[in-house]
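Here is one chain, start to finish.
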Amino acid sequence: MKISVKLTAAVLALGVLSGCASHQVADRLVCATAGAIAGGLIAGAMNEAESDEVGMGIAAGAAVATLLCPVQHAPEAPACSMDAPEGALLDANGCAFDSDGDGVVDGLDQCPSTPAGVTVDALGCPLDSDGDGVLDINDDCPGTPVGATVDSKGCELVVGTTIVSLTGVNFETNSAVLTAHAKSELDTAINRLADATDVVNVRVEGHTDSRGAAAYNETLSLHRAESVIHYLVNHGGIDAAKLIAVGMGEGSPVASNDTSAGRAMNRRVDFVVSQ
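Its structure:
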């Protein structure tokens, strides 16, 4: 055999073995086969060997290639951070997972989308620690007494408590017609009043200053309270059955009627819990 052919055969054979050693061939059977071919080529190319020598080269090449072929192990599955309780949903690794990070695993979490940082109960749901029906995350008045009537913010509505007092609810002179500013003031109170009237009745108390006759002021304050209720019902969507108009006249001042500033404070509308 010509020397160039021998060298070519040797180079090809060594390339096959190199492929095994460099992890380009991963299967041991494939490596052994490649090694057998390489061994046969080398034996035949170098010595123009007889068939038995070629056979020995094949066997030797297969053995060498098998040793060179890397052993590939299946990657180990990552360890689970916790033992999966019965009923938990499992990921591809067989581990329980907690998608909202509240400490209760999916499959057992009855509130699986709890916002981050919210304290939850054993079922994974936000707590209502004072049992008033308003979750802690929305409760502006935590610790409300058991059985108390509360608004949507969790604050207690006690009979006689003033929910809102609006001194800016003014009327046209000597009338019950609301001014534009008065309507604006009422608009800001509508949501608060709607929250309250969901669970209690509200007394709408009209108040005047001391100018004019007491009987006249009482009637005027009643008409003004009725005017406020009409606006709340028609523009705020509040249930008219939950609102009670009361004319208080000049009898419940909160400031002196001797000054214009005091009289302005006394001309007001109070929204008071009635039951």
